[in-house]
């Protein structure tokens, strides 16, 4: 009941206007002026009744709901960030695996000069030595002397692409090349200022 009594308190302000300061549970209410600029716009009785304690309960419920929505919104945003972090971790793991595989393939024995854009076939001798050849298993036919391990294309960045991924990788490279050759197709970037 004390809160209800506080709600109706008014104080004198300059200009002969009466401003009521209203406080309640969950925060302060907006100050009200019965005659802003000396003109009564609406009946203050109908717009600012403070005697009903249920109004304070409704206001407290609204504040609580707002807190719940803010918490749920923050939780959703943090969930998206956590998923992005997991995706980036997976990408980093794949980059490291590919780099390790590429380094291993560059150490494989080869009696020819490797040229980017060419496909090389990986074989394994009985002794365990691996080597690259430009002769495919089909070209060997039934007389293939060693175990075939796989085929790889040497890319221009000196990375290796497994044979089964060559078409997909070439398609991505073609898309990027088209974008780079048509700079007018890209919208102009607005100048961004990151300074406060």
What are the main properties of this structure?
four-stranded antiparallel sheet, elongated, three-stranded antiparallel sheet, disordered N terminus, 9 strands, 196 residues
Number of strands: 9
Helical amount among residues, as a percent range? Answer: 40-55%
Mean pLDDT: 79
Determine the number of helices (DSSP H or I, runs of at least 4 residues): 5
Low-confidence stretches: 1-13
Order of helices and strands: HEEEEEHHEEHEEH
Cα(first) to Cα(last) distance is 47 Å
Major sheet description: 4 strands, antiparallel
What general form does the structure show? elongated
Radius of gyration: 37 Å
Structural class: alpha+beta
Could you tell me the strand content as a percent range?
15-25%
Strand order of the largest sheet: 7-6-8-9
Structure description:
The chain has 5 helices and 9 strands. By secondary structure, it is of the alpha+beta class. Among the domains are: 53-107; 109-178, no CATH class. Strand 8 (147-154) and strand 9 form a beta hairpin. Pfam families: DUF2452.
Quick take:
This protein is an alpha+beta fold and 196 residues long. The protein has helices at residues 2-7, 44-47, 53-106, 137-140, 166-181, and strands at residues 10-13, 17-20, 23-24, 27-28, 32-33, 119-124, 130-133, 147-154, 160-162.
What is the element layout, followed by pairings?
Layout: H1 2-7, E1 10-13, E2 17-20, E3 23-24, E4 27-28, E5 32-33, H2 44-47, H3 53-106, E6 119-124, E7 130-133, H4 137-140, E8 147-154, E9 160-162, H5 166-181
Antiparallel strand pairs: 1-2, 2-5, 3-4, 6-7, 6-8, 8-9
Pfam families: DUF2452 (PF10504)
InterPro entries: DUF2452
Keywords: Coiled coil
């Amino acid at each position: 009941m004390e809160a209800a009594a506080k709600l109706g308190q008014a104080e004198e302000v300059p200009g002969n206007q009466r401003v009521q300061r209203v406080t309640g549970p969950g925060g302060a209410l907006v100050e009200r002026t019965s005659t802003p600029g000396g003109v009564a716009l609406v009946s203050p009785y109908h717009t600012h009744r403070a005697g009903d304690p249920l109004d304070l309960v409704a206001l407290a419920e609204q504040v609580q709901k707002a807190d719940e929505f803010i918490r749920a919104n923050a939780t959703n945003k943090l969930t998206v960030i956590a998923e992005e972090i997991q995706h980036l971790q997976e990408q980093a793991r794949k980059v490291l695996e590919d780099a390790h595989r590429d380094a291993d393939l560059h150490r494989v024995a080869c009696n020819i000069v490797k040229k980017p854009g060419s496909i090389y076939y990986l074989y394994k001798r009985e002794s365990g030595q691996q080597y690259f050849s430009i002769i495919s298993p089909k070209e060997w036919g039934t007389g293939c002397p060693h175990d075939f391990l796989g085929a790889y294309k040497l890319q221009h960045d000196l990375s290796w692409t497994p044979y089964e991924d060559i078409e997909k990788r070439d398609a991505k490279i073609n898309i990027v090349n088209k974008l780079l050759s048509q700079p007018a197709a890209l919208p102009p970037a607005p100048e961004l200022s990151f300074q406060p």
